[in-house]
Design goal:
Elements lengths: L1 H21 L4 E6 L10 E6 L5 E5 L2 E5 L4 E4 L14 E6 L5 E5 L7 E4 L4 E4 L13 E6 L5 E5 L4 E4 L6 E4 L11 E6 L5 E5 L2 E5 L9 E2 L10 E6 L3 E6 L3 E6 L4 E6 L6 E6 L4 E6 L4 E5 L5 E4 L12 E7 L3 E6 L5 E5 L4 E5 L16 E4 L5 E4 L6 E4 L4 E4 L18 E4 L5 E4 L5 E6 L5 E4 L12 E6 L5 E5 L3 E5 L5 E5 L15 E6 L5 E5 L4 E6 L6 E6 L14 E6 L5 E5 L2 E8 L2 E5 L8 H5 L3 E6 L5 E5 L2 E5 L11 E4 L14 E6 L5 E5 L4 E7 L5 E7 L12 E4 L5 E4 L4 E5 L4 E5 L2 H4 L5 E8 L5 E5 L2 E5 L13 E8 L2 E2 L17 E4 L6 E7 L10 E6 L6 E2 L5 E4 L5 E9 L11 E7 L7 H69 L5 H32 L3 E6 H11 ...
Parallel strand pairs: 67-73, 74-81, 75-77, 82-83, 82-84, 84-85, 85-86
Antiparallel strand pairs: 1-36, 2-3, 3-4, 4-5, 6-7, 7-8, 8-9, 10-11, 11-12, 12-13, 14-15, 15-16, 16-17, 18-19, 19-20, 20-21, 22-23, 23-24, 24-25, 26-27, 27-28, 28-29, 30-31, 31-32, 32-33, 34-35, 35-36, 37-64, 38-39, 39-40, 40-41, 42-43, 43-44, 44-45, 46-47, 47-48, 48-49, 50-51, 51-52, 52-53, ...
Helix pairs in contact: 4-5, 4-11, 5-9, 6-8, 8-9, 12-13, 19-21
Catalytic activity: ATP + protein L-histidine = ADP + protein N-phospho-L-histidine
Protein name: histidine kinase
Enzyme class: transferase
């Protein structure tokens, strides 16, 4: 921390002293330390390469700087070359862009860093060196690309190309006559001249592998040569003992010249067109006229102050200034050949510099041609040629008396833009940017007035060319046109030292009568009228007077403006004023008097006023732009317009906070806003008011949207100030040029609001927080510097890509023209930097990826392009930038990026895919054809099977109706007591045959059932179950005299099975056994069990099955019996399928004429069943539907119907007339029968006749039974009628469909007459139980009514809830009638009567009365009301009728009922 504090003190001190020493020399500096990315704070050497990168040789390696970040390099153990330490003392760039360096640890070796590959190389990699040793003394880098490594005693090595090929020049290699090479000079033809201790050898360009030729025969030379210079047609070589050789390039001959100076020529240089300068090490220097040969010597004889011994040249500047040092002394010599004078500049070091060894002499020339000098052991200084002195950065200032600062620089360097880079021991690297412009500042801050606010707030030039400056120190200072201070103006109109105003001045203007109007913020307006004497004024003060409507509207004056007619306009924080003079009385016209415009009143906070070429006033407020025509009545709305931010399609203002205006010479209107940039009026309407605006913001190139001032110069450029920056805008090409170098001129202070002025000379003045910035715009030249745009980094998935053989980068991205990426490397970033070091923060960038981006991406100062999920293809990445002054320059860079396709996304892959698809299509086609053939054959077989099945099913359906007509009458006759017994016996045979036929029909229909129905598995006692079925066949066995046995080998054998399926299995096996077993044979049924299985066997001694048919007996419809007992061929097929669905097995053995044995194997338990079956935990022993029926006599449906002759109406809907007639015959004794032959007729009769019960077939013409049921249930008039459906369909799905639409029952054909009658009676009983619910209804709130869902339909339930609610609401209304209730419900009287009677058993009148009596009973118990009051409350107007009705209901009078329930 202490070191850093000292460093910052040094830098601040240096800045202060530089400003002090150089006055208006404008500059800024920036310091970079280790924490900024620098590898070490000691920098030993600085260069700039051809591209523009700054390279630093530090004590901790090599560093490259691009204006934003440092990229550091040093050798690592894995490198082919490893430096002993990373301290680098010297660096230089060669033709190929490589950086050559010499290291501190081993100065006898040379190292090279290649930025393209980021790899190090060293001379230790050279092989076959003489004596295995080569101590390098110099590294000479030439424009031809050759790099010469010189050794004092071991010859030289030429590095010939970028691959580090080399040629050794050494006596042992017979390539040179000596091993001492003092220097290598390269001429304009790129020939290399080796200056040795034994003459001069030449290596022609391009002939590096040939032996050199000697200018002097190699055996005749005794002189050593050290230096050379090239003229137009000659090359001069300087050697020992004053020897000079002149080589003629044309004739390839040479001449010698012997100087009188008996000393070694160490430097020979061209001084001008006529003279050559030769410098010796001991005898001074001389000039030689090229044409006359005249020699002028300069030594201690004619220059007594020159110490010629050990003289060392430093630099020749400006062709006439020779700088020399003496290695034995500090300081530096300057000889001026123009005036022939020698000046010695001693090393004026301070006490803080003595702790260090003497610093080396430095002579640098910047881009302006100024010379900067550091004497040996002295301070870095600037040479002042006019006074012939060095202006030193001395550290003796009293600002830092305790500082240990040394202003003797360790190294320094000027880059291409004239920026100074230097290091002072441990100060890191310091960049000093010198302003190239002529900005000047005038400090107006008065140190005698203590205040924290000293902003300049008003500028004005009067008609005497004097400049008035008003500040927030509440002062007005007057300067003459040369910025010489005249004095301070006081509020009394006189000049007065340090005069203070009560409030700050914000605006100053001069009218046509030379009166000065001064507006203050808080103290109104002062009018200064000229009086006798210079700078003497008569003062009139105007302020707001609440009692005078014609006074100033507000004392906070921001702007006073004189229009083209001479009228004065005043803008305040509370509105606009116009000054008028009548009878020498000043009046302020404003909204307090003549102006009534709401727009002027609304937009009252005024900051600025201007006038366009047509005379329209533009008034800037904090709430928008106010434009008005002063020539017209401002109370008319068409003469005043306001412009604000809008969402219209036409571009509007970008901000409502207007700061300043500028009207150009061409009449263009520019509007500066506080936070929205600049707006320009681009079109106007016919009246002259603005229509459209064009906005300039950050996006268009402004450095900030916060504008403070705007003004046009004489060249029609617009000058703009933001917080800290000055901007020049060229309206023609709409370019913004940013001048950040005004910052140090203004001591890094900020500009102030709307304080600008253009003087009559064209000079511009801008106010800032401590003074004025002033300049002549034509002297501010544009910065056309075009920085190199470098690609600095490449990342994949946000990780930097290193240069190696396995990465996409074989060389650095900046040296790549093309990058190849894999398909999975399509997330990448590219970093870039424009190498402009003046102010990198001002550089803006734009980039695009052609083929991916449609347009350029303008990203301001963002330096990284991010791309994600880039598809395969070839793209060109392009990037461009501005320079540091904001100019877009032609420095576009591009690089091709190829994203390779994945293997599966290449052309070869697509060909393979196509072949595979074709192959698959062919294979699929072949497979499809094969499958089609198989399916065709299977379909034919299936069609045949389906035809058989459909035939049997259709026949079975058709047989059900006739069977019903057979079974029904027979049952009726058998149950009729009038039928004789002898006939009943005959009818019994008919009934048995009918039952058998019905069983066959059911067996056919069971095919569909066993495939569609889900098995319901329960635990069944197989012993009991089989015994019950076994007993059904005993009578047949007795008739046929068959030995019929049941063998049970274990007791209480239980099996998990479906009851119906098991019954079908046993019944089919026994039926077949009895069918094919002759009389007096045997049939045995056996049941057995082991650990894993339960075995059921049926063994008969029948005719058996022939072997040829045994493989197909389980096929459907397979029948091989040609006897008198025909078969459907489905029994055994059904048995097999049902057994397999139980996960069981069927086995059989059979021999012709001996018999057959069928064995069924069931698994024990139920774990083998899947979710395809339903497991029932307890065995269900349901009684048959017939057993459940306990009544066969009709019942009365309604109250008191038993005593009435009225019968229940039953509607029969059946298309078969015979069946319909039969149903009518069996029911007409008990019910009133209505008939309909189809669904449509049935529905009409339902509506017209209101039946109490409906029996309907399902399969009918016109309208089937299900559709009829839907219409009945959806009609409010019929929804209550019970319905029974009759059908030949027996599947559970068919039954569920009918029941889901509200069928009360579902009976399959053929049916039992008794069963049908019983179901009708049970359904009527259910309806009667429903009626009992309403009869027992005794709740105070109708909303609590909640009948059971199975008794009535949802629609009937809703109707009854509504009926109850309506009755409750009208229970005290004795005029409430049945018609009223029916109207509310939505039914006519008849339909409503039938509905209520069906649902409740009461007529509507009885039902209403019953509800009222029940409510009365509640009130009798729960209230103390009189009986008369209760009667009226429940709708009875007649007390006698109420008492009678109550007694009929409860058997007690109301009084008795109340007393009995107390």
């Amino acid at each position: 921390m202490k070191i850093h504090t000292k460093i910052y003190s040094i830098l601040f001190f240096l800045l202060s002293l530089m400003q002090y020493c150089f006055g208006q020399e404008n500059f800024s500096f920036k310091n970079f330390l280790v924490e900024d990315g620098l590898p070490h704070n000691i920098v030993n050497h600085i260069i700039q390469d051809k591209k523009g990168f700054i390279w630093l040789a530090t004590t901790n390696g090599l560093s490259k700087y691009n204006g934003y970040r440092f990229q550091n390099y040093k050798t690592e153990p894995k490198d082919q070359v490893v430096m002993k330490n990373n301290r680098i003392n010297w660096i230089a760039e060669d033709y190929y862009g490589r950086i050559w360096m010499k290291a501190y640890a081993n100065e006898m070796k040379a190292y090279c860093f290649d930025p393209k590959t980021e790899a190090f190389w060293g001379t230790e990699l050279l092989k076959n060196l003489p004596n295995n040793n080569f101590e390098i003394s110099q590294i000479k880098i030439h424009k031809s690309g050759l790099v010469w490594l010189l050794s004092k005693k071991n010859g030289s090595i030429a590095i010939t190309n970028k691959s580090y090929s080399y040629k050794i020049y050494h006596i042992q290699k017979h390539t040179l006559n000596t091993n001492t090479v003092n220097d290598v000079f390269e001429d304009s033809q790129k020939n290399s001249w080796l200056l040795t201790d034994k003459g001069i050898a030449c290596v022609p360009f391009g002939k590096i592998n040939q032996a050199p030729f000697y200018l002097i025969p190699k055996n005749n030379s005794s002189n050593a040569f050290n230096t050379a210079v090239e003229l137009d047609d000659e090359i001069w070589f300087g050697g020992t003992n004053g020897m000079i050789i002149k080589y003629a390039k044309g004739t390839k001959t040479y001449r010698t010249l012997k100087l009188a100076l008996e000393a070694n020529i160490i430097k020979i240089e061209k001084l001008d067109k006529q003279r050559i300068l030769a410098i010796t090490d001991q005898k001074g220097f001389c000039t030689i006229n090229i044409y006359t040969g005249q020699i002028v010597n300069y030594n201690s004889n004619n220059l007594p102050n020159l110490k010629v011994k050990n003289l060392s040249p430093v630099c020749l500047t400006k062709g006439q200034l020779l700088w020399l040092t003496n290695n034995d002394n500090l300081g530096i010599y300057l000889f001026n050949f123009k005036n022939q004078k020698l000046t010695y500049f001693p090393a004026k070091t301070d006490i803080y510099s003595t702790s260090f060894s003497p610093t080396a002499a430095l002579v640098l020339t910047d881009s302006k041609g100024d010379v900067w000098v550091q004497p040996r052991g002295g301070n870095f200084s600037k040479y002042d040629p006019s006074n012939n002195k060095l202006i030193s950065f001395t550290s003796s200032s009293s600002y830092f008396p305790n500082s240990n600062f040394s202003n003797s620089l360790h190294t320094a360097f000027f880059d291409k833009q004239g920026n100074l880079w230097y290091n002072s021991q441990t100060t890191g690297i310091v960049k000093v940017v010198f302003s190239q412009t002529n900005f000047k500042s005038l400090h107006t801050h008065n140190q005698a007035i203590p205040t924290s606010r000293n902003d300049v707030r008003a500028l004005f030039q009067d008609n005497q060319k004097n400049i008035w400056v008003a500040t927030k120190q509440n002062q007005i200072t007057i300067y003459d046109k040369k910025f010489k201070k005249i004095g301070h103006l006081s509020p009394n109109g006189q000049l007065q030292t340090n005069a203070i105003w009560e409030k700050p001045v914000y605006s100053i203007i001069q009218d046509a009568q030379s009166n000065i109007w001064i507006g203050t913020r808080g103290n109104g307006i002062y009018k200064f009228s000229p009086s006798n004497g210079a700078y003497s004024f008569a003062v009139t003060h105007y302020k707001n007077d609440s009692s005078n409507p014609y006074s100033l509207i507000d004392d906070n004056v921001y702007s006073i403006f004189k229009d083209k007619t001479g009228n004065l306009w005043v803008g305040t924080l509370k509105g606009l004023n116009r000054i008028v003079t009548q009878n020498q009385t000043v009046q302020f016209i404003n909204t307090n008097n003549k102006w009534k415009s709401n727009l002027i009143k609304k937009h009252s906070s005024i900051r600025c006023i201007t006038q366009d070429s047509k005379g329209f006033l533009y008034i800037g407020t904090t709430t928008g732009l106010l434009v008005l025509d002063p020539k017209k009545d401002l109370n008319l709305p068409q003469n005043v317009k306001v412009y604000e931010i809008t969402k219209n399609e036409n571009p509007s203002l970008n901000s409502n906070d207007i700061i300043d205006f500028s009207i150009s010479k061409k009449g263009k209107i520019y509007i500066a806003t506080a936070d929205g940039g600049i707006s320009k009026v681009v079109s106007k309407n016919q009246a002259g008011f603005p229509l459209q605006f064009k906005n300039y913001t950050l996006k268009e190139g402004l450095p900030s949207n916060n504008i403070l001032s705007i003004v046009e110069d004489n060249d029609e450029n617009i000058w703009i100030t933001t917080d800290y920056l000055l901007v020049r805008f060229n309206p023609i090409d709409e370019r913004f040029e940013i001048f950040s170098d005004v910052k140090p001129v203004m001591s890094y202070r900020n500009f102030t609001e709307a304080t600008k002025i253009k003087l009559d000379t064209g000079e511009l003045l801008f106010g800032y927080s401590e003074g004025l910035l002033h300049f002549f715009p034509d002297q501010i030249k544009p910065n056309n510097f075009k920085p190199y745009l470098a690609l600095t980094n490449f990342q994949l998935f946000n990780e930097e890509v290193r240069i190696n053989q396995s990465s996409p980068l074989l060389t650095s991205i900046d040296n790549n023209n093309k990058i190849e990426l894999k398909h999975n490397q399509n997330f990448f970033n590219i970093e870039f930097a424009a190498l402009d070091y003046i102010n990198p923060e001002n550089i803006k960038y734009a980039y695009k990826l052609e083929g991916f981006d449609e347009n350029w991406n303008y990203v301001n100062n963002q330096r990284t392009a991010f791309y994600t999920n880039v598809p395969k293809g070839s793209y060109t990445f392009k990037v461009k930038s501005t320079n540091s002054q904001g100019y877009w320059v032609n420095n576009e860079r591009s690089i091709t990026i190829n994203v390779k396709a994945a293997f599966w996304n290449t052309t070869i892959a697509y060909i393979v895919y196509a072949l595979l698809i074709i192959g698959c299509i062919m294979l699929i086609n072949r497979t499809v054809i094969t499958i089609y053939r198989l399916k065709t054959n299977a379909k034919i077989e299936k069609d045949m099977f389906d035809m058989k099945q459909k035939f049997f099913i259709d026949i079975s359906h058709e047989l059900r109706t006739p069977l019903t007509l057979i079974a029904g009458p027979i049952e009726y006759l058998m149950n009729d007591t009038r039928t004789p017994e002898i006939i009943k016996k005959q009818l019994l045979y008919v009934s048995q045959s009918t039952t058998r036929l019905q069983r066959l029909v059911n067996q056919i229909l069971d095919f569909r059932k066993i495939q569609d129905q889900k098995l319901k598995i329960s635990e069944i006692n197989l012993t009991e179950f089989t015994s019950d079925i076994f007993n059904n066949f005993i009578e047949i066995a007795q008739e046929k005299k068959i030995n019929y046995n049941l063998e049970i080998k274990a007791e209480d054998i239980k099996v998990w099975a479906d009851r119906n399926a098991l019954e079908k299995i046993i019944m089919n096996l026994l039926s077949n056994a009895f069918k094919y077993t002759p009389d007096e044979k045997a049939i045995t049924v056996g049941i057995n069990k082991n650990d894993k299985q339960i075995i059921l066997t049926v063994i008969d001694e029948g005719i058996g099955i022939s072997e040829e048919h045994q493989n197909s007996i389980f096929n459907r419809f397979a029948s091989f019996n040609k006897s008198s007992n025909p078969s459907t061929g489905i029994g055994l097929s059904m048995v097999k399928e049902l057994v397999e669905r139980h996960h069981g097995e069927v086995n059989f053995e059979s021999k012709t004429n001996i018999g057959s044995a069928f064995s069924i194997y069931f698994k024990t338990g139920n774990s083998h069943f899947t979710d395809e079956v339903e497991i029932i935990s307890e065995e269900e022993n349901k009684e048959s539907d017939e057993q459940k029926l306990i009544k066969t006599q009709p019942i009365a449906l309604y109250k008191n119907q038993e005593n009435s002759s009225e019968k229940i109406k039953v509607l029969i809907v059946e298309d078969d007339i015979k069946l319909r007639t039969f149903l009518k015959n069996i029911l007409e004794d008990d019910y009133e029968i209505l008939e309909a032959e189809d669904g449509e007729t049935g529905y009409e009769k339902t509506l017209n006749s209101s039946p109490d019960f409906i029996i309907s077939d399902i399969m009918m013409p016109k309208m089937n039974g299900v559709d009829l049921l839907k219409k009945i249930r959806t009609n409010i008039e019929t929804s209550h009628v019970p319905v029974i459906l009759l059908t030949a369909k027996t599947t559970i799905e068919s039954q569920l469909e009918g029941l889901s639409y509200g069928a009360d029952d579902y009976i399959t054909k053929p049916f039992s007459v008794s069963y049908l009658k019983a179901r009708i009676i049970n359904l009527l009983e259910q309806r009667k139980r429903l009626q009992s619910i309403f009869e027992s209804y005794d709740k105070p709130n109708a909303k609590e009514y909640n009948p059971k869902p199975y008794l009535i339909t949802n629609q009937d339930e809703q109707i009854m809830q509504k009926v109850m609610m309506v009755i409750e609401e009208n229970i005290d209304n004795n005029d409430f009638s049945v018609e009223d209730l029916g109207t509310i419900i939505g039914l006519n009287r008849t339909s409503f009567n039938n509905k209520i009677k069906s649902l409740t058993g009461f007529t509507p009148v009885e039902f209403i009365r019953d509800i009222r009596i029940k409510r009365a009973a509640q009130l009798l118990i729960n209230s103390q009301l009189l009986i008369k009051e209760i009667a009226y409350m429940t709708g009875f107007s007649d007390i006698k009728y109420f008492s009678k009705s109550f007694k009929n209901k409860y058997g007690l009078t109301p009084s008795e009922y109340r007393n009995g329930n107390k």
